[in-house]
Amino acid sequence: MGVGLLSLALGCRSDQVSHYRVPKEVAATHPDHPGHASEGMPSQGMPSGPDAAANVPPPPTPKGSLKWSLPKGWSELPGGGMRFATFKTPVSGKVEATVVVLPGAAGGELPNVNRWRGQIGLPPLDEAGLAKARTVLKTKAGALNVYDFTSDGQVKSRMVVGYVTTPDGNTWFLKLTGDAEPVAKAKSDFMTILGSIRLD
Amino acid sequence: MIKTIASRIWAFFKSFQLTIVLLALLMCLVVLCTLAQVEMGTAGAVNAYMRSFFVWRHVAALPFPLPIFPGGALVGLLLTINLIAKTLDIKLIWPRAGMWLIHAGLVILFAGEFVAGMMQVDTNMSIEVGQTVNYVQSYKDMELAVIDVTDPAWDEVYSVPDTLLAKGGSIAIPGTPITLNVKRYFPNAELATLIPGSAPSLATAGVGVNASVVEIPVVSADNEMNQTSAFVEPVAGGRSYGVWLTSVALGAPQSFTHEGRTYALSMRLRRQYLPYAFTLKQFRHDVYPGTDIPKNFSSLVQVVNPSQKESREVLIYMNQPLRYEGKTFYQASFGKNDTLSILSVVENPGWLLPYVSCVLVSLGLLVHFAIVLRRSLKRRQDQKES
Fold this sequence. Notes:
heterodimer; A: alpha+beta; Protein Transport Mog1p, Chain A; two-stranded antiparallel ribbon; 4 helices; B: 386 residues; alpha+beta; ten-stranded antiparallel sheet
């Protein structure tokens, strides 16, 4: 019986070119997901869709890479996936600091900011709101836009993000995320890191 | 003489010692398979240890693998024969009806596992809120899709399976004037931007011109995916359209135009198109208040099947799958900030067999209990009377 079923199963496995006529695919539209950059989110071992990777394979280290100095107690771990680096903070609790670099404008500043706000359950901003929320930090790598958002609710989430475009056109996100309390403790050190960034 | 040998074989297959040895082997297989999952992933380990007749190993000195242990399929097959032999040994009389039912139920349970092992197809459907999807895709198997995108309403998809690409050579695409020459095939590869001064890429067209491709070992763990890549040269009407790099690592498909028809090349997970489509209307990921602990995941999908003139909403949530047209859709995972739902799709022609088995075994136990109870009551009655 087993052998019979085995041959049947093997027979089913096609090794031929097959043809289908299918209606054109319509991609879902998400205003809060510019370019659908998943930005180090858990991919669940799932395939990269047509939008998950850029057209050109990402270089191992981007040209015009950023450098930074770490305060005492902080350490740097190598990145994985779309993350360029992860920072280990001395603060206990739910807090994480990451660096993500994306090619080109990465969908634009407003859609990215609104996507981050969406991640902690805040409503999107318009251009005027964006300008209001922005703090500009002068660094050796140019002007760095800093955003600091805290969510509503019983357990407050907070997100501090530095956003900078390097001369080669890549966009960098330096993010400090987690529960509001540990984020508040780590913020001053994180701001020191943001202030220290420079071009390699 | 022949009769003696036959009766010995019969005695061997119905022996209780064989049952014990086989059960011990099965226990060893469970331990080995569990340990192997670390390296091979769940599906890889189950295929290597449970769903094969032998466990094969490569020995350094030999060019071919050697069977080192009986696989789950062989042990299962022998256990089934053992069980059938034991069942046939039970006398065909009414007081044994319960035993017959129980044994028949167990044989069906074993048969169900064989059907699942040999014929079950596991795929998944990943679908974003607002998106309509009419295909399921493999977890590991790849295809190079050559898609004629000329028609504004339809795509003509020609799927070249990875197994065919691995053989190399020329692959004619039936129904089109195109022949694909497979220049190189990588089951798994690492792509990077070509560093100036290094050897040029094999590709002469598309984004692959600026990419370097390095072959890396194939991965099989559950959370890893092979970056299957290939250099292919489409030739049509005696004209070469250059050598293209196609890879799962490359996002948007690349295309070329031959005699007014545009063909896109896309390496992707192998798809199976369905005669119906699902639209994800809503995905819910509820947590217990004040915590991150998940309480419920659910996908509200619109099932549209034109051939059945059917269009209805279905809520798929944990432990409440949708069984539709021979496939079962389970809520499996999610992503993209809760806007992507992943349904695991199982097609098992023998899915009913374990249920039939359970009913038979339960019925058999009840019948057997009733028979024994009746016999015991009768005995007590007889004792009283005497």
